[in-house]
Predict the 3D structure of the following.
Amino acid sequence: MPIFETSSWRRSVSEVEDRVSKGLADILSSKTQIKEILLPGVEVFLIDKRSPLALKYLLIEAVEAISDVCQHLLAKSRGIACNGYVDCILKAGTNGIIQEGLSRKLRKLADLRNSLIHRYWIIDDRELFNLCLSNLEDLSEFASQASIFVTSGKGPIPPG
């Protein structure tokens, strides 16, 4: 029986909320900092060699926090383990923690994180800027959906 259906889930909600709250705060902090880097525009971003490095680091931080939140919620509410960043995000979608459409979008972000960490391919800074600009709100959407899941105490949110 998944943990969500037992009374221990109800008792541990504040523990889950605390851990999730920290993760969500980290995600939203990364989003704010990413927005500040993107705000001056692509040309300023490309001239300052530190901006792409900072942006890459913030993306890595955000994906790691997203995965941590997903892993924690999956384990506590469903008794499901994950194997890696992409797996956690996809399982969060298929198990109703977040909407599947969002999990597919965040998977691309996790793939980008893996590429940055393992240097599978060189990422063009202009492309990185545009990807971040067009997908920045996914971070807020994740925070919103994860918060709804935790505070509702009802389990999965409607798929979207």
